[in-house]
Specification:
265 residues, 72% helix, 2 domains, mainly alpha, two-stranded antiparallel sheet
Length: 265
């Protein structure tokens, strides 16, 4: 597969965005190869430095790089507006209450399979990263740090652990950055702190199952997590709230374009 320069930069940002840990040149090369893009380490190193220069990545010394907030916004805009991807973006875009519920059902199906896979493939470093993300989420409850999306970071890390290439494509669709605003809207409607506390407890069960290498338990924990979200959503976003949801989604589009802002499913 041949990418132009901008396409390569966006592919690298997608690699950085899918990982909760810093990515080095060699790891980036391996990830790009899985996407069908073969590049030398020197070429990748130059593109990574260019991401830094554009403000789309942050260097953490010898540990590697992470995507910056500006980089995540740029990636979301690219995914949303690219001519080659716009048909998919339209399919997974969320404009109404039914779209919100459809997204939750889709995430349940895809992410439960990813969690089961992660339970059998997670390395010691992966488990440490999941536990650190869970701790970060719990400590963020009731603080401004919730705006950093600690819950979504956990979901994206689990998706990144699963080695199945097709699952990576599907989780990339349902966890696309331009959909982050959906979680922000749900947080508003489902009443903040109490909802978030329950979410953290459910995330704990998911991580515990992955740590135990129990694929069935991990899959079930994700199913139960989304079942509770769907049940609460179906109860809370009907009637007058349905129109509020639609207006909030439209308002967020108008304010921030294709990018989202917060969330923690």
């Amino acid at each position: 597969m041949a990418y132009d320069r901008e396409g390569t930069l966006h592919a690298l940002m997608a690699v950085l965005a899918s990982s909760s840990a810093p990515i080095g040149t060699r790891s980036a090369q391996q990830a790009l190869e899985e996407m069908g893009l073969n590049m030398s380490e020197s070429s990748i190193s130059r593109r990574l430095r260019e991401l830094n220069e554009r403000g789309w990545a942050i260097s953490l010394g010898t540990k590697g790089r992470v995507i910056s907030p500006a980089g995540r916004e740029q990636l979301a805009e690219f995914e949303y507006s690219s001519p080659s991807k716009s048909p998919i973006s339209r399919v997974v875009d969320v404009r109404s209450v039914q779209d919100v519920l459809d997204l939750l059902y889709a995430r349940k199906a895809v992410e439960s399979a990813a969690a089961a896979s992660a339970a059998t493939h997670a390395t010691t470093e992966d488990i440490k990263a999941l536990q650190a993300l869970l701790k970060k989420h719990r400590e963020a409850l009731g603080t401004e740090q919730m705006a950093t999306q600690p819950g979504l970071d956990l979901h994206r890390k689990i998706a990144a652990i699963a080695p199945n290439r097709m699952l990576k494509i599907l989780t990339g669709l349902v966890l696309a950055p331009h959909l982050d605003r959906v979680e922000a809207v749900l947080d508003i409607v489902l009443c903040g702190h109490l909802h978030q506390s329950c979410v953290v407890d459910e995330h704990q069960k998911i991580v515990d199952a992955i740590v135990a290498r129990d694929a069935k338990a991990a899959e079930q924990a994700v199913d139960e997590h989304f079942d509770s979200m769907i049940k609460a959503g179906e109860k809370s976003i009907v009637g007058d709230n349905a129109s509020i949801i639609t207006r909030l989604l439209s308002w967020m589009d108008a304010v921030s374009g294709p990018t989202g802002s917060s969330g923690s499913l």
